Please model this.
Amino acid sequence: MMYYTGIDWADQKYDLVILNDTGKYVNPQFEIEKSEAGFQELLAKLRHLSANPVDFKIGIETPQNLLVDFLLLWGYPVFSIHPSSMKSFRKRYRPTNARDDAHDAYVLADVMRTDQACWKLVHRGSERTHKITMLVQDHYHLMQQHTATHNAFKQTLKNYYPEYLHFFKDVSCPASLAFITSYPNFAAAQALDQQQLLNFFKEHHLFHQKKVIHMYQLLHGNHIHVPPAIINSKTLTALSYGHQLTVVQNGLQEYERQIHEALAQHPDTEIFRSFPAVAELTAARLIALFGDNRQLYDDASLIQAKAGTCPVTEITGHDKKRNRCHRIIYFRQGCHKVYRAFVHNLAFSSLTQCHWCKAYYDYHRQLGQDHHHSLRCLANVQLKILFAMWKNRTRYDENIFLAQRLKNKNPASGKKGGNNFK
Model:
């Protein structure tokens, strides 16, 4: 007998329902705490029904959860479903939009029983792949935080210390953060003489005589008067942002160090590094995107959908004049946004390092597509090539690709023809 388990998660607890093959409750709906004791309680209940984990199919809305990791550790198959799909299924059982945790757990269990094609198996991959995946995803989120803090820091300087924006090209570089910590406002910096400025730069291994003279002239020239109350408050804000940027930058360096070490031990590193414009961090991101289970994907389409490079196509009605169905193609919203950013950056980086990538991008620009649309088209093709490399465990060979491109008369070759790499 197969047991279908639905888990509705909350901040401090989980609601669970277990159904059998016929859709009947195996036991009453129950709750567990978000703790080791709660997880062990669930494990005991599952083992009481069957000692074999393959007799269960466990459904939850999110694949990123401590309970999911616990169940995977014990060998239980866990499946996830997109929240928007769950929203549609919920209306099948209840016409209103009222939310109820226990009812949602039942919906998850029953949909797992009746609509298994809508679920995705949660697969972490090997330990080394899982480690790289977590590192690159958290590294990306920390980079986003760094960008947000950098922008807030820069805006604060504009509000009380606009001259500072001319001191350093990058206001979040280590030397800049050290300077703002020592001289957090215009008056403090203005008290420095030229030799003191030069000494500061020497301490930070920066020897720019022209830069020192330029800063000194700015500090002793005309400047905008700022009310003391604003200076006092914004100085505290700038110092706070400066401290945050220092901490985040140290964190990013540690992430990159660990990613470097993890890549050295992964067998797919050199495969991805052989592709144009793929540096160390990009290779780690591609390993996270593809994983290491080559049986999960039959072709590149699922990877392309996961990264959001391929559009969504709807086929509806019938066009009598053209004797074919109406096709509606639009931007894919549902995808992994982090991976979309990864492949978008890869496509952009390849424009200056790969001739055919630039030709393919230019072709789509000539068709009237904007910059980002053209990059998505290029990324879609690149993922197809990368998938073949990954699937076959082969390094990139430009000669093989160019021969295939010529065979299909691709637009990137300058000839008329289809726009798909086959």
